[in-house]
Amino acid sequence: MSNDIRELNPREVWRHFSSLAGIPHASGHEEKIREFIADFAQRLGLDTTIDDAGNLIIRKPATPGMEDRRGVILQAHLDMVPQKNSGSQHDFLRDPIEPVIDGGWVRARGTTLGADNGMGVAAAMAVLESDSLRHGPLEALFTVEEESGMSGAMGLKPGLLRGEILMNLDSEDEGELFIGCAGGLDATMTFTYGEQAVPDGYTGFMIAVRGLRGGHSGMDISLGRGNANKIMNRVLQDGYLRHGLLLGSIEGGSLRNAIPRESMATAAVPASQADSFLEEFAVLAAAIKTELSIADPGLQIEAVPAALPGRVVEEEVFGRLLDALRACPDGVMRMSSLMAGLVETSSNLAIVKSGNGSIQVECLLRSSVDSAMEDLADMMRSLFGLAGAAVVFDGGYPGWKPEPASPILKRMRDTYIGKFGTTPEVRAVHAGLECGIIGAAYPLLDMISFGPTIRYPHSPDEKVDILSVGKFWDFLVETLAQAPGE
Ligand SMILES: [Zn+2]
Q1: How much is the pLDDT for 297?
Q2: Tens of pLDDT along 47-60?
Q3: Ligand 1 geometric centre to CA of 139 (Å)
Q4: What is the CATH T-level fold of the domain 5-182+400-481, as seen in this structure?
């Protein structure tokens, strides 16, 4: 078999995907690829606009006889996550991605492939270019910076788009139709403290929690995995209440959207208590490991003698921190009553970090129901307010509430069954999609998300299933031809 992805079927999609791979388009650096696609549309004589947020909008009139159909917006994001293997010399601002055919998959040489979301962009380009497909009035909406804050979707102004149906081409399981996603909100709580000298007769310890699986704070939150910050707090509070443990420093978690895998703390314990502290620590650590033995078999919880911290966190503040973290909402708060197995509302206690006289606590809250998100945020405000911390919320974006009676869902379900003889699964994700944000600016849009099968997105192992691209394309073409009328 040739190793040229341009020879794969459907050629009209792979040809565009191959061109896109040749143009660097890491998130935040979409200018070149946007210019390339805008030139392409202008050569086709299509109406092309770049909005204030940097999104590219292209309009194509209905094909003859299809003028009465509802307008469809094909939406995909221009940017990709730039990740490479540690040995790779790849420069994401200059070098082209090198796609390779690997069995039934296409992947890249040592880097992310950008099938997320280049496949969606390429399919939309193939529709814009075609003079044989049948479709109603069309718009393509290509957004920027989806992978780094969704500023394109956030900056999209109401009144710009005319279509009534939005097809987001950015999901990763062929044969599944997505009709909902979660909104997100960053909660940051700050405890300020004075340092105090370590009293006489104390001895130092290093406490470590590691070996957890972690995972995505939305998609993996229902798996019951351990949270390193919660586990650390549990052993620290036990040491404080029973043995007078004091905290030198703490650092747990690294990314707000990742379940924390590790936490490290330095502590001081009265020397007279050191033996009983270690004994009881071992008992508690064993109990926690037993609780998590299936979800997190690699968990390690250790306390080892170490240098005494120079100064410790003021005891009164430390006590309040321990109480607040003990009670802090973490994990699944509620499952959806609209869709089986879908998490509706969750919290991830992502980061706990001391330094320069303050301890910062960062959580990522998610919900597909906006009022439930507000309730959770108020819970955090009440709890950490009681504990004397400053509470700040930012980075909020709305969810997309599943609408099982959506007309485009019904039409696409029927089309899929007619075409492939199997019933597509209807799902929602407990993570952010641009649909939530776009839907807030365009509340009347009937939205759906689908795409080819992509595995390990956002990593150098990213790959797209070749056969699924063909099915995705056939399904898109058929759906456009069958788009609902007035
Ligand atoms: Zn994406």
Answers
A1: 97
A2: 999 999 999 999 99
A3: 19
A4: Aminopeptidase (3.40.630)
